[in-house]
Design goal:
eight-stranded antiparallel sheet; 34% strand; VTC domain-containing protein; VTC_domain; VTC_sf
Length: 206
C-alpha cells in the first residue's frame, strides 16, 4: 500500500510570521547548535492560491532543550486575512507574545518583533495501516520582511523540499526507509534559519 492524500487537508498553503529579538536570539541558537532552540511564530492556513482559509490563526512557541521538545499553540483573536494585511511596523504586533503567550511556555523575550513571513505549499498524506501522518513541504519562500531586520526577499524558493513523518513512531515507517537511496537526507532543519541565510548570504553563519 502507498501513501494516500489526507482526507480533509490534502493541500494547503502554510503561512507563518517568525518573530525574533533585534539581536536574533532564535537565529543564533540554531547557528550555534541543535541542542537549544526556541522559535516564535504566528501561523495561519490558506488555499493553494494563497487565499486565507476560514480557520483560526495561531500563536506558536517551539522549545528544544537537548532531547526534550515542547510545542505550545493557542488561537489568536486575529484572522489570517488580517495578519496578511498587517504591516510589520504595526503596533498591534508589538508585545503579541506577551499578550497571548500559551500557558506553560517559557516567558518570551519582551523585545520580540516580526522578522519575516514565510510561506510554502504543504501536501498531507496518510497510510491505511500506520497511525502517523506525512507532509511534503515545497516552494518554501519568504514573501516579506521587516526592513529593520532583513533585506526584502525575491520570493526565490529554497532549493529543497521537506518531507516529514508526524506521529507516535520513533523511526521511519517501513515504506519510507528506502528514501535515502533517492537522495533524501535526514536532518534537523529550520526553515526560518535557511531563509535568513538566503536573505543574508554574507553572514558568517552562511
Amino acid at each position: 500500500m502507498t501513501l494516500q492524500p489526507h482526507r480533509s487537508h490534502a493541500e494547503t498553503t502554510v503561512c507563518s510570521i517568525y518573530f525574533d529579538t533585534p539581536e536574533g536570539v532564535s537565529f543564533l541558537e540554531k547557528a550555534a547548535s541543535d541542542f537549544r532552540k526556541t522559535k516564535y511564530r504566528v501561523r495561519w492556513y490558506a488555499d493553494g492560491a494563497g487565499q486565507p482559509l476560514s480557520v483560526p490563526a495561531f500563536i506558536e512557541i517551539k522549545e528544544k532543550h537537548g532531547a526534550a521538545r515542547r510545542k505550545f499553540r493557542c488561537p489568536l483573536p486575529m484572522t489570517g486575512a488580517e495578519l496578511a494585511r498587517t504591516s510589520f511596523r504595526d503596533p498591534s504586533l508589538t508585545g503579541l507574545f506577551q499578550r497571548h503567550s500559551p500557558p506553560g511556555a517559557e516567558t518570551p523575550p519582551a523585545s520580540l518583533r516580526p522578522v519575516l513571513e514565510l510561506r510554502y505549499l504543504r501536501r498531507r498524506y496518510h497510510h491505511p495501516i500506520f497511525p502517523d501522518s506525512f507532509c511534503l513541504d515545497e516552494n518554501i519562500r519568504c514573501v516579506r520582511t521587516h526592513p529593520a531586520a532583513a533585506p526584502s526577499g525575491s520570493e526565490r524558493p529554497l532549493p529543497l523540499a521537506v518531507f516529514e513523518q508526524k506521529g507516535p513512531s520513533r523511526e521511519a515507517v517501513p515504506l519510507l526507509q528506502a528514501l535515502p537511496r533517492f537522495g533524501a537526507r535526514r536532518a534537523a532543519l529550520s526553515k526560518y534559519f535557511l531563509i535568513m541565510l538566503q536573505l543574508l548570504p554574507h553572514s558568517r553563519h552562511s
